């Protein structure tokens, strides 16, 4: 084997060995020092969810009509639009940012502070 081929063979072999060594899986540790606390927090969250949050959510659905729930949903969606606009700009999606900005302006003015969503009907 001539020197350039030998050098190439050594480099390729070294790359393969390093790649395979990088893919080696370390055994997972089974110990979780916070396991007892995590179980207590999970149990607490389950109780709060079952005895507080779910009854409130079911009562909300029972006492409000679909139209009222739609208004509330539109209002909160409108509050989140500025976050979406910033996200679009950070991803250099200027068209998406412009669309979301237009939706925010229309919903906040014509849509009465976001209660209604006129751009959805315009599409």
From TrEMBL:
It holds the Pfam family MlaA. One of its GO terms (cellular component) is membrane. One of its GO terms (biological process) is intermembrane phospholipid transfer. Coiled coil: none annotated. Keywords: Lipoprotein, Signal. This is VacJ-like lipoprotein. The lineage of its organism: unclassified sequences, metagenomes, ecological metagenomes.
